[in-house]
C-alpha cells in the first residue's frame, strides 16, 4: 500500500487545483525556501484528521484556504491510496479520501465554516477516516514535520514510551481491559441487583410461607364450616318434617277444644245473667238501708290505699338508692386510702430526689470554686486578664439576673400549668359524670317511650321486613339470572378453548403434545413452550417463517439443560418418541455470515427472518437455532439473482438453500405458527378462571340470599311480644338527672372559660421564657468566649485542669438537670394526686349530703305509709259497723258477688282460652306454608352423614359459630399465597442460578482481565525488545557510537517512561548535551527501528537532515533508500546528497504567491532553482 496521488485545491499556497502523482520507493521534494514544500506535508496531515490547526502551522482551520489574488471560500485535499494489498478493509484496489473546508458566514460569526469528509466520493465522518486509516497503521506519527526531527529525543520519557505502546497496539489491550472491567462492573452491579432481589424474594417467601400455611388452615376451616353447615341443613330438614306432623296434630286437637269451649261458654253466660239480676235486687235493698254513706267510706278507703301504695313504692325506691349510695361511699373511701398511699410514696420519692440534687449541687459548687480559684490565679497575671475578668464578672451578673427572671417565669408558668391541670382533671371528671348521666337519661327516655312505641315499632318492623323481603326476592332473581349468564359464558369459553386445544393437538407431534401437557399440568416445571408458541409472526411473513423454521418450530424451549434431561428421561420411560429441547442456559446466539451481511442491503431483501418476528429477548438464542441467518426476500426471481452461499425464503414459501437447492410448490393449510396462539389460549384460560371465581361468588351470594329470605320469613311470622312497663319510678329518676345535668352544664361552661383564660396566660409565659432562654444563651456564649480568651493566656497545665473541671461540672449539671426534671415530674404527680384526693373527698361529702337527704325522704315516706295504713284501718272499722246492720243481705250480696266474680273469671279465662285457641289454630296453620317452603328451600346436601355423628342444632350452631369466628380471626387470608409461594420459589431458584452464573462470569472476567494484562506486558516486551535491538544496530550504523533504549520501570513498564542512552568513546552522554545533528541521528534511529519492526505504508519526512553534516546526511539518505523497499518515503529536503539518493524527485516553485510542482528533474536543474547544499 502507498500514496498514488495527492490533489490540492485552494490549500495554503496552492491556489489552483493541482495533482501530484507518487510512486513506491523514495521520493524527494525540494525547492526554494517559502516555495510551499512543507505545505504538501501539511496537506497530508490535514487529511489524516488533525483537529488542531497549529499542528499544520495555522491559527485557524480557515487559514488553510488560499488567500491569494482571487481569494477562495473553500479548500480541498484528496489522497489516492493503492489498496491492492487490502490493508484498508475496503473491497477496492484504490481508496480516495477527501477532506474539504468551506466558509459559511453567520450573522454573529463571519468566520464560520463546515468540514466535509468523503471516502470514495461518499460522505463520511472524521471518526470513519481515523478508523479506516488506523486499520492500516497510518497515523500522524508517521510524519515528521519541519523542525520536529529532534522531538523524539526532546519529548518526555512517558511520551516516548507511548510511541512503543502505539506500535505494540497497547491501546487495544487497554480497551479490552477497560471493556472487561466495564463488563465486570456491570456483572457485579447485576449481582448486587440480583442479591437485593433475592433478599426481597426470601423475605417474601418467609411471609408467603406463613400466608400459605394460613391459607391451607383457612381452606380446611372453610371446608369444615361447609360440612357443618350442610349438617345443620340436614338436621333442620329432619326436624322440619317432624314439626309439620306435630303442627297438623296440634291443629286437630285445638279445633276439637274450640268446639267444647264454645258450648261451655254459652252455659256460663246464661248462668252469669241470672246471678247478675239477683245481685242487683239485693244491692237495691241495701242502698235503701244506707248505701250512700258506705260509698263515701269506700272512696276514702280507696284513696288511702292508693296513697299507701305510692308511699310503699317510694320507700322501696329510696331504700334501693340509699343502699347504692352507701356502696358508692365505701368505694370512694377505698379510693381515698389508695390515693393516700400513692401520696406517701410520691412524697418519699420527692425527698430522695431533693437529697440527690443537694448532693450534686454541692459537688458542682466545689468544682466551680476550684475553677474560679484557677481563673483568679490566671486573672492576676496581667492587665488584659484583669480587664477580661471584669467583663466576665459583669456578664455573670447579667446571666444570674436573667436566670432569676426566667426562674420566676418558670415558677409562675408551672403554678398556672398546675392550676390548669387541676381544672382539666375536674373538667374531665365532670364530663365523665355528665356522660354517665347522659347515657342513663337516654336509657330512661328509651324505657319510658318503649311502652308507647312498641305497637308502632312492631307495625313498622313488619312493614320493613316485608319491604326487605320484596327487595331480597328481587335480588335473588337478579343473582339467579347473572349466575345463569355466567354459566352460559363458561360453557362457550370451554368450547372455544377445546377447539384451540384440538387445533394445537393436530399441529404438534404426539411427543411434543405430551411435553406441553406436562407443562400445562405443572408436572415438570421450567418448560416455556414450543418455538411456534413463543414466536409471534405477522400474517405477511407467516408462510416464509413457516418454511424457514420447518419442523424446528416444534422445538421446545426449556429453562436449563437439567429440565431438558428430565423431559428426555420421561419420553424414554414412556416411549413417547423424540423432541428437540432448547435449554436457555446453554443456547448461544450466532452471527450472520459475511455473505448474508452483504446481501441484506439489497432492495428486494425484506430482512433476516429473525428480525421479522417478535419474541421475548431471552429466547433469542433459541430463535437463532430455528431461523439462523435465513433471509426473507420478495419473490423467487429476487432469490435467484442473489442465491449462492446464503439461505433464503420467499414470501410465497420457496426455500433456497446455501448449496443452491430450491424447494417450492403448494403449502398445506394451517401451519404450526397459524395453529399455535399461546396468547389467545392464556387469555381464554384467564377468562375462564375469572368467570369460575365469579360463578363461585354468585353461588355463595345466591345461597346467602336464600338464607336471608328464610330468616325474614321466620321473623315475620314470629314478631316479639312486648309488655308495657311501669314508668313512674323512671320519671322520678329522669327529673332528678335533668336537674343534676343543668348544674353540671353550668359548671362545665364556667370551667371551660377558666381553662381558655389560663391557656392564654401559659402561652404568654412560654413566649417570655423563650426570650429569656435566648438572652441567657447569648450571654453564656459571650462569657464562654471571654473565658476562653483568658484561658488562652494561661499555661497549658492550667488550661487542661480547667477543661477537665468544666467537663466534670457539665456532667454534674446534666445529672442535676435530670434530677430536677424528675423532681418536677414527681411534684406534678403529687399535685395530680392531691387534686384527685380533694375531688374524691368532695364527691364523698356530696354523697353523704345526698344520703342524708334520701334518709329524710325515706322517713317522710315511711310516715306517710304508716298514716295511710292507720286511715285505711279506721275507715274499714266504720264500714264494718254499718255493714253489721245489713249483715244478712250483705252476706247474701257478697256471696252472689263472689259467684259473679268467679263466673266472670271463668268466662274471661274461657274467652281468653278460646281466643288463644283460635290464635294458636291460626298461627299454627300459618306455620305450615313457611315450614313447607323452608323444607323445599333447604339446599342440596352434598355430604353424607351417619346417624351417630349428627350433633344437636345447638351444638351444630355452636360449632359453626366457633368455625366462623376462627375463619374471621384468620381473615384476611391471601388464598393466592398457595400459588404465589410456588412462583416465588421458582423465581428464587432462577435468580440463584442467575447469581451463580454471574458469579462465574465475574470470575472469568477477572481471569480474562489478568490474562489481557499479562498478554499486554508480554506483547510490549516483545515489541520493545525488537525495537531496542533495531535501535542499537541502526544508531551504531548511523553515528558510529553506542545507543540503547532503557525502561525506567522494567517491572511495570507502564508506570515509567523510556529513556535513550548514548555512549560516545565509552562515555555516557546526556541527551541535552547532544548537538542538533546528534539529536537528529538519535531520533531518526528511533523512527527507523520502529519502521524495521512494523513499517507504516508510508513516511513523510520534512527537512530531517537540516542539522546533519554531509556525511551523516548521506548515511540517512542511504538508509531511507534501503528502507523504501518495504515502505514509501516522501522526503522534503534541500540537501544534495539526500536528493541524489532519491528514486523520484519533485521540485516546488512559487510565482505570484501560487505554488507549482515540477516533476522528474535532475540535480543540475535543481541547483538553478533551489538552495542546494
Protein described:
The chain is an alpha+beta fold and 1173 residues long. The protein has a domain at 1-139 and 1096-1172: Rossmann fold, CATH 3.40.50.300. Helix content is 69%, strand content 10%. It is built from 25 helices and 25 strands. The strands form six sheets. A six-stranded antiparallel sheet has the order 2-1-4-5-6-7. A six-stranded mixed sheet has the order 8-22-23-3-24-25. A five-stranded mixed sheet has the order 13-15-16-17-18, with helices on both faces. Strand 1 and strand 2 (18-21) form a beta hairpin. It is elongated, with a radius of gyration of 59 Å.
Q: What key phrases describe this protein's structure?
A:
single chain; 1173 residues; alpha+beta; Rossmann fold; six-stranded antiparallel sheet; six-stranded mixed sheet
In the CATH hierarchy, what is the class of one domain? Alpha Beta
Mean pLDDT over the residues: 79
Number of helices: 25
CATH architecture call of one domain = 3-Layer(aba) Sandwich
**How much beta, percentage-wise?**
5-15%
Helix content: 55-70%
- Could you please say which CATH topology of one domain applies here? Rossmann fold
Protein structure class: alpha+beta
Amino acid at each position: 500500500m502507498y500514496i498514488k496521488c495527492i490533489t490540492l485545491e485552494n490549500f495554503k499556497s496552492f491556489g489552483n487545483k493541482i495533482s501530484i502523482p507518487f510512486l513506491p520507493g523514495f521520493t524527494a521534494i525540494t525547492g526554494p525556501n517559502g516555495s510551499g514544500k512543507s505545505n504538501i506535508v501539511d496537506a497530508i496531515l490535514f487529511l489524516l484528521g488533525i483537529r488542531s490547526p497549529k499542528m499544520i502551522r495555522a491559527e485557524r482551520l480557515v487559514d488553510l484556504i488560499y488567500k491569494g489574488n482571487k481569494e477562495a471560500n473553500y479548500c480541498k485535499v484528496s489522497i489516492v491510496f493503492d489498496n491492492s494489498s487490502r490493508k484498508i478493509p475496503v473491497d477496492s484496489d484504490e481508496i480516495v479520501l477527501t477532506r474539504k473546508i468551506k466558509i459559511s458566514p453567520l450573522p454573529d460569526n463571519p468566520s464560520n465554516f463546515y468540514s466535509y469528509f468523503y471516502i470514495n466520493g461518499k460522505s463520511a465522518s472524521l471518526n470513519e477516516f481515523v478508523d479506516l486509516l488506523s486499520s492500516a497503521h497510518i497515523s500522524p506519527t508517521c510524519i515528521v514535520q519541519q523542525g520536529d526531527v529532534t522531538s523524539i529525543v526532546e519529548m518526555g520519557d512517558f511520551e516516548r514510551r507511548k510511541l512503543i505502546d502505539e506500535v505494540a497496539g497497547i491501546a487495544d489491550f487497554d480497551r479490552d481491559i477497560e471493556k472487561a472491567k466495564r463488563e465486570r462492573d456491570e456483572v457485579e452491579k447485576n449481582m448486587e441487583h440480583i442479591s437485593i432481589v433475592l433478599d426481597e424474594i426470601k423475605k417474601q417467601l418467609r411471609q408467603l410461607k406463613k400466608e400459605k400455611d394460613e391459607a391451607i388452615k383457612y381452606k380446611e376451616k372453610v371446608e369444615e364450616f361447609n360440612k357443618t353447615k350442610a349438617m345443620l341443613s340436614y338436621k333442620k330438614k329432619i326436624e322440619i318434617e317432624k314439626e309439620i306432623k306435630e303442627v297438623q296434630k296440634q291443629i286437630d286437637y285445638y279445633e276439637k277444644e274450640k268446639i267444647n269451649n264454645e258450648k261451655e261458654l254459652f252455659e256460663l253466660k246464661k248462668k252469669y245473667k241470672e246471678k247478675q239480676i239477683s245481685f242487683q235486687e239485693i244491692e237495691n235493698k241495701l242502698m235503701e238501708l244506707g248505701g250512700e254513706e258506705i260509698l263515701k267510706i269506700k272512696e276514702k278507703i280507696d284513696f288511702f290505699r292508693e296513697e299507701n301504695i305510692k308511699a310503699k313504692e317510694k320507700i322501696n325506691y329510696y331504700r334501693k338508692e340509699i343502699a347504692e349510695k352507701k356502696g358508692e361511699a365505701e368505694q370512694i373511701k377505698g379510693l381515698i386510702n389508695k390515693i393516700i398511699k400513692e401520696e406517701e410514696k410520691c412524697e418519699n420519692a420527692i425527698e430522695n430526689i431533693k437529697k440527690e440534687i443537694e448532693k450534686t449541687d454541692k459537688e458542682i459548687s466545689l468544682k466551680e470554686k476550684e475553677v474560679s480559684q484557677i481563673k483568679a490565679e490566671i486573672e492576676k497575671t496581667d492587665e488584659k486578664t484583669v480587664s477580661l475578668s471584669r467583663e466576665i464578672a459583669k456578664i455573670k451578673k447579667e446571666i444570674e439576673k436573667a436566670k432569676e427572671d426566667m426562674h420566676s417565669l418558670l415558677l409562675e408558668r408551672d403554678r398556672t400549668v398546675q392550676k390548669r391541670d387541676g381544672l382539666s382533671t375536674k373538667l374531665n371528671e365532670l364530663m365523665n359524670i355528665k356522660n354517665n348521666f347522659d347515657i342513663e337519661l337516654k336509657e330512661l327516655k328509651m324505657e319510658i317511650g318503649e311502652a308507647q312505641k312498641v305497637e308502632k315499632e312492631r307495625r313498622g318492623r313488619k312493614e320493613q321486613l316485608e319491604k326487605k323481603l320484596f327487595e331480597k326476592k328481587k335480588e335473588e332473581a337478579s343473582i339467579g339470572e347473572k349466575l345463569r349468564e355466567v354459566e352460559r359464558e363458561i360453557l362457550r369459553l370451554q368450547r372455544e378453548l377445546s377447539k384451540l386445544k384440538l387445533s394445537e393437538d393436530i399441529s404438534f407431534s404426539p411427543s411434543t403434545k405430551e411435553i406441553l401437557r406436562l407443562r400445562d399440568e405443572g408436572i415438570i416445571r421450567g418448560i416455556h413452550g414450543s418455538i411456534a408458541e413463543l414466536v409471534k409472526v405477522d400474517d405477511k411473513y407467516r408462510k416464509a417463517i413457516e418454511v424457514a423454521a420447518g419442523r424446528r418450530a416444534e422445538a421446545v424451549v426449556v429453562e436449563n439443560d437439567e429440565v431438558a434431561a428430565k423431559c428426555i428421561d420421561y419420553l424414554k420411560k414412556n416411549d413417547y418418541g423424540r423432541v428437540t429441547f432448547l435449554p436457555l442456559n446453554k443456547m448461544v446466539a450466532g452471527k450472520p455470515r459475511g455473505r448474508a451481511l452483504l446481501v441484506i442491503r439489497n432492495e428486494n431483501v425484506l430482512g433476516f427472518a429473525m428480525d421479522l418476528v417478535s419474541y421475548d429477548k431471552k429466547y433469542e438464542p433459541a430463535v437463532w437455532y430455528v431461523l439462523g441467518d435465513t433471509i426473507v426476500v420478495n419473490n423467487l426471481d429476487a432469490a435467484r439473482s442473489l442465491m449462492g452461499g446464503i439461505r433464503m425464503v420467499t414470501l410465497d414459501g420457496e426455500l433456497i438453500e446455501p448449496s443452491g437447492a430450491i424447494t417450492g410448490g403448494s403449502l398445506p393449510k394451517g401451519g404450526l405458527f397459524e395453529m399455535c396462539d399461546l396468547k389467545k389460549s392464556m387469555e381464554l384460560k384467564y377468562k375462564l378462571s375469572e368467570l369460575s371465581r365469579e360463578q363461585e361468588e354468585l353461588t355463595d351470594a345466591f345461597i346467602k340470599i336464600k338464607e336471608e329470605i328464610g330468616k325474614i320469613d321466620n321473623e315475620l311470622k314470629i314478631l316479639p311480644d312486648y309488655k308495657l312497663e311501669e314508668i313512674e319510678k323512671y320519671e322520678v329518676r329522669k327529673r332528678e338527672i335533668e336537674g343534676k345535668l343543668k348544674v353540671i352544664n353550668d359548671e362545665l361552661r364556667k370551667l371551660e372559660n377558666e381553662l381558655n383564660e389560663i391557656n392564654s396566660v401559659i402561652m404568654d409565659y412560654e413566649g417570655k421564657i423563650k426570650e429569656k432562654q435566648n438572652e441567657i444563651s447569648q450571654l453564656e456564649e459571650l462569657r464562654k468566649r471571654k473565658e476562653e480568651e483568658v484561658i488562652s493566656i494561661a499555661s497549658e497545665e492550667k488550661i487542661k485542669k480547667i477543661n477537665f473541671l468544666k467537663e466534670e461540672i457539665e456532667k454534674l449539671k446534666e445529672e442535676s438537670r435530670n434530677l430536677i426534671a424528675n423532681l418536677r415530674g414527681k411534684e406534678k404527680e403529687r399535685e395530680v394526686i392531691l387534686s384527685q384526693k380533694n375531688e374524691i373527698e368532695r364527691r364523698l361529702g356530696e354523697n353523704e349530703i345526698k344520703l342524708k337527704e334520701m334518709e329524710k325522704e325515706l322517713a317522710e315516706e315511711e310516715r306517710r305509709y304508716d298514716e295511710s295504713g292507720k286511715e285505711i284501718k279506721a275507715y274499714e272499722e266504720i264500714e264494718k259497723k254499718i255493714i253489721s246492720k245489713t249483715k244478712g243481705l250483705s252476706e247474701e250480696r257478697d256471696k252472689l258477688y263472689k259467684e259473679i266474680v268467679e263466673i266472670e273469671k271463668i268466662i274471661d279465662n274461657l274467652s281468653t282460652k278460646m281466643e288463644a285457641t283460635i290464635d294458636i289454630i291460626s298461627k299454627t296453620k300459618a306455620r305450615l306454608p313457611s315450614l313447607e317452603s323452608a323444607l323445599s328451600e333447604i339446599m342440596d346436601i352434598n355430604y353424607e352423614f351417619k346417624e351417630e355423628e349428627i350433633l344437636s342444632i345447638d351444638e351444630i350452631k355452636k360449632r359453626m359459630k366457633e368455625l366462623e369466628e376462627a375463619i374471621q380471626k384468620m381473615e384476611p387470608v391471601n388464598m393466592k399465597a398457595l400459588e404465589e409461594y410456588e412462583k416465588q420459589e421458582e423465581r428464587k431458584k432462577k435468580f440463584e442460578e442467575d447469581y451463580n452464573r454471574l458469579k462465574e462470569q465475574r470470575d472469568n472476567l477477572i481471569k480474562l482481565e489478568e490474562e489481557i494484562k499479562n498478554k499486554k506486558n508480554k506483547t510490549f516486551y516483545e515489541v520493545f525488545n525488537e525495537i531496542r535491538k533495531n535501535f542499537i544496530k541502526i544508531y551504531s550504523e548511523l553515528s558510529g557510537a553506542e545507543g540503547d533504549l532503557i525502561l525506567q520501570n522494567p517491572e511495570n513498564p507502564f508506570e515509567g517512561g523510556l529513556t535513550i542512552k548514548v555512549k560516545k568513546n565509552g562515555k555516557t552522554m546526556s541527551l541535552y548535551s547532544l548537538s542538533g545533528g546528534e539529536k537528529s541521528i538519535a531520533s531518526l534511529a528511533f523512527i527507523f527501528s520502529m519502521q524495521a519492526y512494523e513499517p507504516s505504508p508510508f513516511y513523510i519526512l520534512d527537512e530531517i537532515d537540516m542539522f546533519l553534516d554531509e556525511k551523516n546526511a548521506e548515511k540517512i539518505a542511504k538508509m531511507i533508500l534501503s528502507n523504501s523497499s518495504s515502505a514509501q518515503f516522501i522526503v522534503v529536503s534541500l540537501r544534495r546528497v539526500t536528493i541524489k539518493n532519491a528514486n523520484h524527485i519533485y521540485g516546488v516553485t512559487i510565482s505570484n504567491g501560487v505554488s507549482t510542482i515540477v516533476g522528474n528533474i535532475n540535480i543540475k536543474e535543481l541547483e538553478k532553482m533551489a538552495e542546494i547544499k
